[in-house]
Amino acid sequence: MAAATAAAAATAQPEGVEPTPQQPPAVAITPANPSIPPWYFEGGMRRVKPYHYTYNTYCKERWRNKTIFEIYGTEFRDRPQEYYKNAVLTGMISINGVPTHSLDQIIRNGDIVTHTLHRHEPPVTDKPVTIVCETDDMIVINKPAGMPVHPAGRYHYNSVVEIMRFERGGWNPMPCNRLDRLTSGLMFIAKTKEASKSMMLQLQTRTIKKEYVAMVKGEFPEGDVVVEQPILAISPKLGLNRVKANGKHAKTLFRRRSYNPTKDYSVVQCLPFTGRTHQIRVHLQFLGHPIANDPIYCNRKVFGPNLGIGGEGDDEDIITRLSRMGKEEVAEAVAYHDELVADYEKRKAERMSGETCSICDTPLYTDPGAHELGIYLHAKKYNCVEGKWSYETPLPDWALPKEGDVVSEVLVLESVDIPLVLKEGNAGSGEEVKTSLDGNNTGNGKEEESEGVEVEVEKEVVAPKEITPQELEMLQIGGESDEEEDTQKGGEKDIVEDK
Fold first, then answer.
1. Which of 53, 284, 292, 312 could join 119 via S-S bond, C-beta 3.0 to 4.6 A?
2. CATH number, domain containing residue 114
3. Is the pLDDT of residue 335 over 70?
4. How many structural domains does the chain have?
5. Catalytic position from the list 111, 180, 367, 494
6. Is 406 helix (H, G, I), strand (E, B) or coil?
7. Tens of pLDDT, residues 306-316
8. For residue 445, is it within any domain?
9. What's the 3-state SS for 169-196?
């Protein structure tokens, strides 16, 4: 740090002149010996003992000319404001290697902000990252739910990349596709840059088809349900997306696998045409059948009693309610199933324990319950449209047939051989077809809930049980790819990860 301080002093800029970007100070991270595993396993969890870590971040455009405390007090929400106030005053936060000690110090273009902290990683499931297939240049894995792909936010060692890096002796894993932390399923990890480029090109050129499976609230309609509604990130900071007319085009085909009338949930197959962030989750919510344990899109405290069906709800109100959610909040959805109700009070996800860390005085949290470690969404199958390869995982436990399930007549919706009614020349006709949530064509341009309440909708909601050959050929990539995100949002990101 002394070297960094001297360098900063030597390259000081005259007042009023924007400084040139500096080299970041050396990153201090413990444990530092990569040969020693940082994990231990206890209570069904993969855990990491707290360690010191230094974040180095270039000044972002939105930070310019703001005070250091203003940035940390509003930008990062994984710790209380009082923590950041103390971190500034005690010199744990530096600018260009020089401790600030002032809450009012201004951040300018080119500055490097350094924050050394005692890092407490949340535990993740102890389920292994299983190998579906391995070739000379690619590994296909089945990612466990609740485990982020990349180090981000509060997660570093408890990520797919770091786990595989250690297990393979320092090898550099190169993920080709992304899944939400809460989502499980197939991922491609390249061994070489060439293999990574090849796979990413296939993903970008839509020559790969994906199939997901989800468990949703309520009785999903029989038959094929096609949702074609644009999706917009209404709050990138909170990771919140909604159906909006000015959003990006998004289209998903759904088909019910089974329905359990006793517990009132359905297991649904999902084939996305496009690849928008949270696409499947948002489209299912729009239909009135959100994923049953989705902490965001199936949360009445955020979206109200109707859970945002048909895009219902004011964006600003929803953002405000979501931003107020702390770690003491838990999605009401986890109590929908009878077998979970008895444990509801014991599973307040990662609630404050009332204790603080003896080293950094950070409030400590209890462990998350099993149902806060993932959502009922799984990337089940990928296949190349040219027929060169196809990979598939077993169904997760929650998607397996249960006693009392009513199984749909057409159970499997297989990649290309989708048993749909083909209609030539339908694509792009501009003909709007409105279908009620029970699958019956209303023809009136409105969507009806089961209670008979009509809800105005934007554009086409669902199409009838038919799809064009052109669209059938384009059933591809799509789905839940997005930047890995911490559930609490607002975590810091290291300068190395920003590249």
1. 53
2. 3.10.290.10
3. no
4. 2
5. 180
6. strand
7. 999 999 999 99
8. yes
9. CCCCCEECCCCCCCCEEEEEEECCHHHH
